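hey
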């Protein structure tokens, strides 16, 4: 007999290993009365390197806010008009979801009038935003888009007229910007507002099918008014886009007003509780005073004064895009809580390991955990600045005009870069939960659907990244002309000095732990790319500019991405300085260092192409990233616990706080099954198939 080859022996051993009884079989099949999940999560929490309560106070901005948020969650859980009354959220029909969402809004508006503590009022809104994405979006459309348009574009007199009704929902508003054929390409919008001198009115009209206002949240069934952006036509001449308040429905009957046609978009991939709709205007007349006239205006004598800068028409989109940071925290907070807890509870492997201990697992989740903390810190920095700039709109028009370009550039780049990465994190969370994430009852599929609109809604990310790149190239030109730049592009003031060095001073991995070192590297990359792309576009000239832009489009988008990560890291570092005296500052700094390495690693190809780093640097960067993810994995469960999202809000049994996930998952599935009897279609379609006669049955049953 010939001796068995070593390779054959190895294959037999592998087969035997696959067929052998694994530790997880013993644990679940034989000792099912002792699930390991609760003990695993308890151990993870006991080994935390920080106090979870202290981190929660950083996330929610203080102990008082933590207490208010806890009370708000309790109010939701106990109030039948705020919580799900029965069944599961993902089993609601579209009509049921719409009714529930509007019921929740009506109840919170009622409670808002009764609650005296402003901190609790805000906490109730935030808690409801975590509880229901449809609720959050309906409130967002009314409070952020509709109301913000009035605040930015309306005069003091117009604000006095409308604001009380808006605040108290006697007027329910929506935001009619996007059109069927033009999305958010404002210059291409077709809806017109034509001034009639004889009646001192504007006539709002949708001249074509593609002019139909499309995807307008709250217009499908609910809104009584809209702010519509229209091409302004006076005496046959187009004076560009302006904003107009247009009534849509009779507030007493809910019926559409003459000349207004609104319909529902229909079934969407998610957010069924939000009534996205479409609007067509057929010669709808509105008073001249319904034109928002802070910047552009029309006198009663018919004299039109244009806006001092066309960019002002985009101003309301800036805070909308900044809200991506807050909305992403909600969605990612849910998804990462589910994925991390499941990873700590689920065991599989030769030694029955927690799957969260596998390198491929923790390297896919830990950057996401760090990222939501960065979103939280940077969110505050952005809105502190935006509130200052928005205040200038009321007090100092010159300062407002100076600040708006940088705010627009930052908002465009952040919306693109951060939303793209958030979608990657969501997919990582789905994969990290295996097949169980495909169940709607474990929430992640719904969260992915909820977030799906973000990369295209409010401006397609690819377009926004090009807007950011265009701003960078323009800012470099200003610097070359001797202007002093501020904000996110202030580094262009020293672009020559930055580019005088073409290779890094990188010595070992400790350099990458320095915030200043990483920012300097990204600054060099931004300056290098901007100067090269600007030179290409300048050489193309006006005649061939569009062709040159298109030929370099992917590089322009990459430039905007590098710039956004650079400024994101700067704002995070600035923000955590406020927490320097807290007990959790080391963890905040650790997460910032991980994401600094992540940003360098993400753009490693650029640095290698330009010779700024070499192969040895790349190896060090990749290894440091792995080490940092492994180090942060030790605090994975406490870090997501700090977001303090209750189980009833998460709505995912595999993400339960106590770790006893399988009984909860099975109970959720069986509770949704109303009957174990065969469905009606079984008798209609399945029974004839399974009871069809076999060949030869006729002879067996023959009585002849």
């Amino acid at each position: 007999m010939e001796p068995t080859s070593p390779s054959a022996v190895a294959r037999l051993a592998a087969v035997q290993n696959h067929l052998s009884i694994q530790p997880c079989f013993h644990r679940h099949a034989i000792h099912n009365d002792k699930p390991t999940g609760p003990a695993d999560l308890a151990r993870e929490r006991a080994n935390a390197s920080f106090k979870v309560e202290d981190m929660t106070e950083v996330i929610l901005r203080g102990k008082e806010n933590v207490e208010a948020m806890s009370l708000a969650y309790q109010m939701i859980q106990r109030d039948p008009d705020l919580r799900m009354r029965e069944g599961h959220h993902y089993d609601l029909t579209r009509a049921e979801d719409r009714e529930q969402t509007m019921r929740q809004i009506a109840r919170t508006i009622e409670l808002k009038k009764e609650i005296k503590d402003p901190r609790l009022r805000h906490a109730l809104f935030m808690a409801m935003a975590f509880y229901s994405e449809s609720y959050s979006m309906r409130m967002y459309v009314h409070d952020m888009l509709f109301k913000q348009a009035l605040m930015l574009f309306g005069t003091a007199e117009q604000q006095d007229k409308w604001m009380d009704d808006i605040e108290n929902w006697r007027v329910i508003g929506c935001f009619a910007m996007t059109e069927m054929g033009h999305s958010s390409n404002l210059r291409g919008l077709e809806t017109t507002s034509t001034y009639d001198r004889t009646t001192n009115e504007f006539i709002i009209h949708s001249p074509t099918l593609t002019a139909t206002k499309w995807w307008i949240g709250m217009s499908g069934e609910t809104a009584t008014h809209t702010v519509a952006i229209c091409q302004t036509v006076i005496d046959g001449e187009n004076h560009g886009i302006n904003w107009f308040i247009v009534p849509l429905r009779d507030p007493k009957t809910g019926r559409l007003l003459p000349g207004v046609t609104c319909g529902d978009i229909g079934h969407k991939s998610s957010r069924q509780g939000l009534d996205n709709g479409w609007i067509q205007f057929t010669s709808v007349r509105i008073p001249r005073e319904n034109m928002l006239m802070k910047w552009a205006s029309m006198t009663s004598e018919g004299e039109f004064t244009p806006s001092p800068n066309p960019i002002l028409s985009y101003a309301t989109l800036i805070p909308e895009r900044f809200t991506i940071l807050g909305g992403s925290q909600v969605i990612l907070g849910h998804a990462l809580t589910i994925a991390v807890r499941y990873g700590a509870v689920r065991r599989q492997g030769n030694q029955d390991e927690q799957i969260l201990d596998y390198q491929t697992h923790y390297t896919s989740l830990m950057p996401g955990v760090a990222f939501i903390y960065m979103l939280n810190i940077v969110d505050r920095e952005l809105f502190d600045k935006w509130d200052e700039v928005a205040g200038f709109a009321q007090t100092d028009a010159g300062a407002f005009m100076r600040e708006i370009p940088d705010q627009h550039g930052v908002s465009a780049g952040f919306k693109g870069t951060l939303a793209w990465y958030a979608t990657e994190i969501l997919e990582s969370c789905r994969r990290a939960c295996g097949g169980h994430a495909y169940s709607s009852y474990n929430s992640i599929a719904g969260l992915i659907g909820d977030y799906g609109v973000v990369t295209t809604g409010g401006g397609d990310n690819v377009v926004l990244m090009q807007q950011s790149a265009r701003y960078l190239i323009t800012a470099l030109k200003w610097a070359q002309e001797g202007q002093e730049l501020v904000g996110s592009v202030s580094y262009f003031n020293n672009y020559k000095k930055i580019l005088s060095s073409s290779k890094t001073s990188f010595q070992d991995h400790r350099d990458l732990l320095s915030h200043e070192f990483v920012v300097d590297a990204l600054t060099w990359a931004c300056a290098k790319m901007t100067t090269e792309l600007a030179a290409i576009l300048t050489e193309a000239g006006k005649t061939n500019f569009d062709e040159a832009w298109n030929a370099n489009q992917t590089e322009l988008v990459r430039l905007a991405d590098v710039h956004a990560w650079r400024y994101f890291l700067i704002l995070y570092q600035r923000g955590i300085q406020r927490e320097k005296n807290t007990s959790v500052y080391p963890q905040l700094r650790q997460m910032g260092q991980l994401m600094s390495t992540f940003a360098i690693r993400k753009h490693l190809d650029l640095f290698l192409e330009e010779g700024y780093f070499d192969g040895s640097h790349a190896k060090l960067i990749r290894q440091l990233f792995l080490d940092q993810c492994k180090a942060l994995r030790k605090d994975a469960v406490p870090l997501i616990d700090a977001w303090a999202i209750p189980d009833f809000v998460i709505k995912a049994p595999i993400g339960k706080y106590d770790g006893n996930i399988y009984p909860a998952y099975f109970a959720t599935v069986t509770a949704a099954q109303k009957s174990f009897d065969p469905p009606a279609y079984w008798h209609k379609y399945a029974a004839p198939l399974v009871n069809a006669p076999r060949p030869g049955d006729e002879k067996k049953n023959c009585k002849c």
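The chain has 27 helices and eleven strands. The first helix runs from residue 6 to 19.
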